[in-house]
Amino acid sequence: MSGLRGKVDTTALADGLERLGLTVIVDPMHGSAAGVLPALLGQEAVASGAIREIRAERDPLFGGNPPEPLAPYLAELIAAVQTSTAAGRPAMGIVFDGDGDRIAAIDERGRFCSTQLLMPLFIDHLARARRLPGAVIKTVSGSDLMQLVAESLGRPVLEKPVGFKYIAAEMLAGEVLVGGEESGGVGFGMHLPERDAPFAALLLIEALVEGACPWASASMPCSRPTAAPPATTGSTCACPTWPPAAGWRRA
Tens digits of per-residue pLDDT, 153-173? Predict the structure, then answer.
């Protein structure tokens, strides 16, 4: 974990979540990533409610469902996020697959967000806020939104066949900002030529803290919730509306 803390200021993330009044609910789906994010953000963040976990107990049957970060298996996480938001503490969900290399998310209205929507956020944050170098790698099944955001930030986009091995090969061969596949695997040139969902989660939280608002306030087009979303109040969000228009560039 010290390696991850060396690349992301986890203390600043915990403080930022407190400023936003946002709770991160982590669902490791009874898998190997259980306990990782709370340990990284620290006991104070856990005690304050800035981060908490569900389904963190080890279970070789994964609660009777496939440990896949897909909407049909996330009813408990979606309900937890919506309940927290309805009670006045906006929440977002982060889910890892069973072996902790793939990620998806739930916005505070209970909408499922796959890597088709996470990738544009990563591209924007890493290129604009962190000013990191490198190209963007997407698979042929990746959304056009990835390419739109990357090109608006002056980044070349390489399109590869489905399979993270093709992304990893590009990461080993040249300078890559971020590469992602539609099934939830994301790799970062600043990190490893491999998928690492807890590291992706840290960067996701960092992007939201840097943007000073949760997703639903920014109108990100996640999939519709399984139930009517609770209303949120008091937003002071200054994030851009998603998806960005042609030629969009976040200030």
Answer: 999 999 999 999 999 999 999
As a residue count, the chain comes to 251
Chain position carrying tokens 């970062």: 188
Domain parsing of the chain, residue ranges: 2-113+196-218, 117-188
In tens, the pLDDT along 99-117 reads: 999 999 999 889 999 999 9
CATH 3.40.120.10 fits 2-113+196-218, yes or no: yes
The answer to whether 2-113+196-218 and 117-188 have equal CATH topology is yes
Cβ atoms 84, 91 nearer than 8 A: yes
pTM for the complete prediction? 0.87
Tokens of 163: 């399979």
CATH class of the 117-188 domain in this structure:
alpha beta
> Do residues 179 and 123 lie in contact, with contact meaning Cβ atoms separated by under 8 Å?
no
Q: Which two tokens stand for residue 65?
A: 């469902």
| Identity of the amino acid at 205 | I
Which value, to the nearest 10 degrees, does the dihedral of the CA atoms of residues 42, 47, 52, 56 take? Answer: 80
